[in-house]
Amino acid sequence: MSLFLYEHPFAMYCWKPLIALYERDVPFTAELVEADRSALAALWPPASIPVLVDDSVVLAESSIIVEHLDRHGDAPSLIPTDPDEALQARLWDRVADGYLTTPVQRIVGDALRPSDAKDPYGVSQAHATLDLAYATLDRQLDGRDHGGWLAGDDFTLADCAAAPALHYADVLHPLDRDAHPALTALLRPGTDAIVGRSRGRGGPPVPRAIPAALARTRVS
Ligand SMILES: N[C@@H](CCC(=O)N[C@@H](CS)C(=O)NCC(=O)O)C(=O)O
178 and 114, same structural domain? Predict the structure, then answer.
């Protein structure tokens, strides 16, 4: 078995399979993707990251990669085997991507645009979407009789998606800790500790670099 993950350490969507890989204790080789994506495009024409190569199988899309990783390692499945629970995991993965990661990408993307191509309206919409996401996720977590994970009792795909997205979102659009205590509990230990919280394993080393990196590039 040889797994290669094409990724960049600052890319939220790459953290999702990275968390799954560490959580499942699956050995892999990280292939750093930078500006030149031609080699990646030969594997996967959109050249988005992450991309996983598992022997002859090439898989893109972070959620699909996490689903595939359930075939590796012996940790409990990140897509629950119960069909109803699996739907919840997929649902909250979609919520994390759509309502956290997408607006974060919009805000960061706008900060990188030339000054004559800014989209202030889009950015203000993105901030409003993050408020909606915080309220939605906090309500999902609040007062529920489960382990504090988004989709139920267990750590799932949904948490792999939400942890990094929430981490970045909080930098760009600070989470009101008083208004959203349940969601704060998910954020509180920091992303590496969130990973570690899943069955007590240590978090991946790469995300520890992220807060410092983001602090240097803070946009509002
Ligand atoms: N839906 C995709 C989104 C992947 C995505 O947007 N990846 C970003 C990095 S986080 C990317 O490659 N963007 C294109 C670019 O940077 O050129 C997934 O879940 O994998």
Answer: yes
Whole-angstrom Cα distance, residue 66 to residue 18?
9
Which domain CATH number covers 10? 3.40.30.10
Residue 89's CATH number: 1.20.1050.10
Tracing tokens 């989470």 back to the chain, one arrives at 175
> Which of the listed residues 10, 14, 18, 48 should we mutate to test ligand 1's pocket, taking the one with most ligand atoms within 8 A of CB?
48
Q: Amino acid letter at 195?
A: V
Cα 5 to ligand 1 centroid, rounded to whole Å: 13
3 state SS of 30:
strand
Q: What is the pLDDT of residues 26-69, one digit of tens each?
A: 899 989 999 999 999 999 999 999 999 999 999 999 999 999 99
Entry pTM: 0.87
